[in-house]
Design goal:
alpha/beta; Rossmann fold; seven-stranded parallel beta sheet; 9 helices
Length: about 250
């Protein structure tokens, strides 16, 4: 058996039309998973799903705004109608509308971060995990951040939400482990995505960051995707409740 095979698995991946989510979707499809491409924009979802199918993979496109509970339910329902119950769930979609000191963030922005980054993970797991249990097990992968492990003077609310992701993983790993469901987090460091553009496009922030990374560079989305494949596959079958840090060594050197 190929330890990293995802043959026969249905994988829902939120925020999968660009960046880390896109890389995870492409690699999971390459390893045999039937992938559900999801983001707020249906056209973008269609484009990615079509590109995966052109390369021989299986992919469908279901637009979903993670801020709305009814859209999360529709994402799960449409997946089950078209591909069957999900055996892999990747909670990747998140937002960060504010960059600056916590003292100055508006109530609206703070609540928006918590609702999207914590609430959507909680609600989506509520909707998907019972179906996984019926099938005999599955894997949940939450894309967190090293921001959840360190103090910050500019990403306070976002960092709080990402620390919460790690606790969600631990809680659900304990709750659902007896049903053979594994729940883990990936905590990337600075990765070259549109989401993190404000960081890596700023020369001062970029240099300050990579100077503390032993590898002296930021990551690429594909360097996160491998860990997701590991956690979803038989290779990760005894790994649960963990946060895997992928940051070029940043957290151990600074």
């Amino acid at each position: 058996m190929n330890l990293f095979s995802l043959e026969g698995k249905v994988a829902i991946i939120t925020g999968s039309t660009k960046g880390i989510g896109l890389a995870i979707a492409i690699r999971m499809a390459e390893h045999g998973a039937k992938v559900v491409i999801s983001s707020r924009n249906q056209d973008a979802c269609d484009e990615v799903a079509s590109a995966i199918r052109e390369k021989g993979g299986v992919a469908i496109a279901i637009a979903c705004n993670i801020n709305y509970k009814e859209q999360l339910q529709e994402l799960v329902s449409k997946t089950e109608q078209q591909l069957g119950k999900a055996s892999v769930l990747v909670c990747n979609a998140a937002l960060n509308p504010y960059f600056g000191p916590s003292q100055d963030i508006s109530d609206e922005a703070f609540d928006k971060v918590m609702h999207a980054n914590i609430g959507s993970v909680h609600r989506l797991c509520q909707k998907v995990l019972p179906g996984m249990a019926e099938m005999g097990g599955g894997a949940v992968i939450i894309v967190s951040s090293i921001g959840g492990l360190k103090g910050t003077d500019a990403l306070g609310a976002y960092a709080i939400s990402k620390a919460a992701d790690m606790q969600i993983a631990r809680n659900l790993a304990v709750e659902w482990g007896p049903k053979n469901i594994r729940v883990n987090c990936i905590a990337p460091g600075l990765v070259k995505t549109d989401f993190a553009k404000a960081l890596w496009e700023n020369p001062e922030i970029y240099e300050a960051t990579v100077s503390k990374y032993p590898l002296r560079r930021i990551g690429e989305p594909d360097e996160i995707a491998g860990a997701a494949v590991f956690l979803a596959s038989a290779a990760g079958s005894f790994t649960t409740g963990q946060t895997i840090v992928i940051d070029g060594g940043g957290t151990i050197a600074s």
